[in-house]
Amino acid sequence: MDFAIIEHLKEIKALILERKQDKWLTIKDVAQYTNLSKSTIMRCIRKGQLKVSNKTGKLLFKRSDVDKWLK
Questions:
Q1: Which whole number is the average pLDDT over 32-61?
Q2: CA–CA separation, 26 vs 28, rounded Å?
Q3: Helix and strand element counts for the chain (H, E)
């Protein structure tokens, strides 16, 4: 029984860490993270190569989407 509890706790920890790593980035953050210029990032947005959200009035990117785009 203790083994099952430990396994569940490990799963919970993994989910928390995964969610924490998938934070929102600004275009400045993406430029620093990728070592690319803002204009290159904007060009990829226009081409539909990179997902972006602007619901808040700012361009925001999920780190996981940026990582997928880089691969």
A1: 95
A2: 5
A3: 4, 2
